[in-house]
Specification:
Elements lengths: L2 H11 L3 H9 L3 E6 L3 E3 L3 E3 L2 E7 L4 E9 L6 H16 L4 E6 L10 E3 L4 E3 L1 E4 L6 H4 L4 H4 L12 H15 L3 H15 L5 H10 L10 H29 L3 H23 L1 H4 L2 H4 L5 H13 L3 H11 L1
Parallel strand pairs: 5-6, 6-9
Antiparallel strand pairs: 1-4, 2-3, 4-5, 7-8
């Protein structure tokens, strides 16, 4: 999974960390303070979440939380590195929890022991957590994470409909509702359910159709035009300085890419923008123009992704 996709997942989950601490980990926290997550080890690393927490019994501790979407064979070593760093800097041994949100069977080890060192962290498989812990919440941010939980008792079709119905009940405003549904779609990729989510949302007429919005159309057209204009200016300047016609072509490519990124953001949000790493690999103006037109009528991000993969 790309680092950019990791960041998108982290951005979605940041609003529900407190709920996971309370409902899944079960800690009774009186007060919680976020701590800088960049760790200056030999090479800079960034933890997902670190909190200084005060518990009901009056004790104070560090709480370190990671979300992991793949089976990383050296996870226990990574957690040990984090543990040593936090112990050294903050003078407290952190409580460490890793939430596995991947779709493959969990194979990571939660402990290691050698002749000189022993380390253990808490490993939670979200597929073992009952989806009803979050599905009936009054907060849409919590409802969306039920897609990562165990829904087998309900069956996938019934469960997906319930998730979308809950979002529809809680969020009346169309564009905001669309935002949460897009977030469900992003997380559903971790369960191979994105297509099912999209089709059910479409059947329930829950997805806000931006193509009908005059302001969206005007903004998109303006964004594409301005992006192309900026790109052409840069390209023409480069061409004049270097005496090469390639500058103009590069400028048009750059302008198209800026316009495309704006369209993806407006129509699909973070899930669309996540495609840009792949789109930048297309060096044909004709293909980019074709992709730009496809964005207007594509039924899903997967359809766009398929086009990009064929072009590369």
């Amino acid at each position: 999974m790309s680092k950019r996709y990791d960041k998108i997942i982290k951005e979605i989950l940041k609003d529900v960390v407190d709920t996971l601490i309370r409902e899944v980990i079960g800690l009774k926290i009186v007060k919680s303070t976020a701590i800088e997550t960049k760790l200056q080890i030999t090479d800079e690393r960034e933890a997902d979440f670190i909190f200084r927490v005060e518990l009901q019994d009056g004790s104070v501790s560090l709480l370190h939380i990671e979300f992991q979407a793949t089976n990383y064979s050296k996870m226990v070593l990574r957690e040990l590195r984090y543990w040593v760093y936090m112990m050294e800097v903050h003078g407290m041994a952190p409580m460490q929890y890793v939430f596995y949100i991947g779709n493959e069977p969990l194979t990571m080890k939660d402990s290691m022991s050698t002749e000189t060192t022993t380390h253990r962290y808490n490993l939670i498989d979200m597929r073992d957590v009952d989806c009803e812990k979050f599905l009936y919440s009054d907060k849409p941010e919590e409802v969306i994470i039920s897609i990562l939980c165990n829904y087998q008792r309900k069956g996938v079709k019934i469960f997906i409909r319930e998730v979308l119905e809950r979002i529809a009940e809680l969020v009346e405003e169309e564009t905001l509702r669309g935002k949460y549904i897009k977030q469900v779609e992003v997380l559903s990729q971790l369960r191979d359910l994105q297509y099912d989510i999209y089709k059910e949302a479409e059947a329930m007429a829950l997805v806000y159709d931006m193509e009908r919005d005059v302001r969206f159309r005007q903004g998109r057209e303006r964004g594409v035009a301005e992006g192309i204009e900026r790109g052409l200016e840069k390209g023409l300047l480069k061409g004049l300085l270097e005496g090469k016609l390639e500058g103009k072509l590069e400028g048009k490519l750059e302008g198209l890419l800026e316009g495309i990124e704006g369209m993806l953001d407006l129509k699909y949000g973070s899930a669309g923008v996540a495609l840009m790493d792949m789109v930048r690999g297309i060096d044909s103006v004709d293909k980019l123009e074709e992709f730009k037109n496809l964005i207007k009528k594509a039924a899903s991000v997967d359809e766009l992704r398929g086009f990009v993969e064929e072009c590369r």
